[in-house]
């Protein structure tokens, strides 16, 4: 089975949607544990206005704490040129940007309609290329919008085509509010891969309605090999206040590894990172495998080798 890459988004996407702000030192400790588990690509900060997202106000301090050669791919999320400049100066090793699939979501979430965000992306991607920094883009609400409802697949394909003109290293399709189902994943991934055969795709699923793992299986079957996930399922869903947000990294690692699909991540080390984070936050996280543990138990697995 072909291996998958899991991009850990807990430190940015997860923490950004948590109540309260984790101190920089606690973020660095968390990052260290996640990297030690084998994760090689992590979203570590967003370079947005600190008043809009207080949890990310220490973006520069986090990057400074990682040092000049962090030993993994440190992704900084940016939404405009100003954020890009901050991220580049802070020393991120990959730039992430987002464009919503609908004007309504784009305007409320990042203050930009689709056309404006695409313009900003083209600008940022050009700057990043000149600086030798890989840049990728996420199409949010690609499977449904909290304001406009169903999103036509043709619209997402068109958006992906236009985003691809700026030469991203990868395009992600994000189920930002956790409404996608596997048949939809199969269909949309198929359409985007057909339109852009040379572009690497990533999938970002939320477990809001308990469909994230089924969607990940559909995504793998459709040929995608890169998936976002958040340790412990860290981060809620701003459009479903009582619900779970990002799919838990341990749940995805467990699923893939037990299917014989290598992830490069140690489940035991990842579970230890999740448990340490629960202690730091003083509450339980929603990840299922964090509660149940892996299988077979580590000692029995060793005997079976
Ligand atoms: Mg998310």
Features:
single chain, 305 residues, alpha/beta, TIM Barrel, eight-stranded parallel sheet, 13 helices, binds magnesium ion
User: What is the CATH architecture assignment?
Assistant: Alpha-Beta Barrel
> What is the CATH level 1 assignment?
Alpha Beta
What is the H/E string? EHHEHEHEHHEHEHEHEHHHH
Q: Determine the mean pLDDT.
A: 95
Portion in strands: 5-15%
Can you count the beta strands? 8
What fold name goes in the CATH topology slot? TIM Barrel
Low-confidence stretches: none
- Span between N and C termini? 19 Å
Catalogue the ligands: magnesium ion
Please summarize what this structure is.
This protein has 305 residues and is α/β, with parallel strands linked by helices.
Write the layout of secondary structure elements.
Elements: E1 5-8, H1 10-16, H2 24-36, E2 41-47, H3 59-66, E3 73-78, H4 81-90, E4 94-100, H5 103-110, H6 114-131, E5 135-140, H7 153-164, E6 171-174, H8 182-195, E7 201-204, H9 212-221, E8 226-229, H10 249-258, H11 267-281, H12 288-292, H13 298-304
Helix pairs in contact: 2-3, 2-11, 7-8, 8-9, 10-11
The protein binds magnesium ion (MG).
Give an account of the 3D structure:
By secondary structure, the chain is of the alpha/beta class. The chain has one domain: TIM Barrel. It has helices at residues 10-16, 24-36, 59-66, 81-90, 103-110, 114-131, 153-164, 182-195, 212-221, 249-258, 267-281, 288-292, 298-304, and strands spanning 5-8, 41-47, 73-78, 94-100, 135-140, 171-174, 201-204, 226-229. The protein has an eight-stranded parallel beta sheet with strand order 1-8-7-6-5-4-3-2. The longest helix is centred in the middle third of the chain and has 18 residues, at 114-131. It starts with a strand and ends with a helix. The model has no long low-confidence stretch (mean pLDDT 95). It binds magnesium ion. Magnesium ion binds next to loops.
């Amino acid at each position: 089975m072909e291996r998958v890459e899991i991009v850990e988004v807990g430190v940015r996407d997860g923490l950004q949607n948590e109540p309260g702000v984790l101190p920089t030192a606690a973020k660095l400790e968390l990052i260290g544990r996640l990297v030690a588990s084998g994760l090689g690509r992590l979203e570590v900060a967003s370079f947005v206005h600190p008043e809009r997202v207080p949890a990310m106000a220490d973006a520069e301090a986090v990057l400074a704490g990682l040092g000049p050669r962090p030993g993994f791919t440190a992704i900084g999320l940016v939404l405009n040129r100003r954020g890009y400049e901050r991220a580049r100066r802070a020393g991120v090793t990959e730039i992430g940007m987002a464009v919503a699939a609908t004007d309504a979501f784009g305007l409320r979430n990042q203050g930009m309609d689709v056309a404006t965000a695409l313009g900003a992306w083209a600008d940022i991607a050009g700057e990043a290329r000149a600086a030798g920094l890989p840049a990728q883009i996420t199409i949010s609400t690609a499977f449904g919008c909290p304001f406009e409802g169903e999103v036509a697949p043709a619209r997402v394909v068109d958006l992906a085509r236009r985003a691809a003109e700026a030469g991203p290293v990868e395009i992600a399709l994000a189920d930002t509010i956790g409404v996608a189902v596997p048949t939809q994943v199969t269909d949309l991934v198929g359409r985007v891969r057909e339109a852009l055969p040379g572009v690497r795709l990533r999938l970002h699923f939320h477990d809001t309605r308990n469909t994230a793992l089924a969607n990940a299986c559909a995504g793998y079957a459709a040929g995608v090999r890169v998936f976002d996930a958040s340790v412990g399922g860290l981060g809620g869903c701003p459009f479903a206040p009582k619900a779970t947000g990002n799919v838990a990294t341990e749940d995805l690692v467990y699923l893939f590894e037990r299917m014989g699909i290598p992830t490069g991540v140690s489940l035991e080390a990842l579970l230890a990172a999740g448990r340490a984070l629960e202690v730091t936050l003083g509450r339980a996280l929603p990840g299922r495998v964090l509660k149940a543990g892996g299988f077979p138990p580590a000692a029995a697995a060793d005997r079976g080798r």
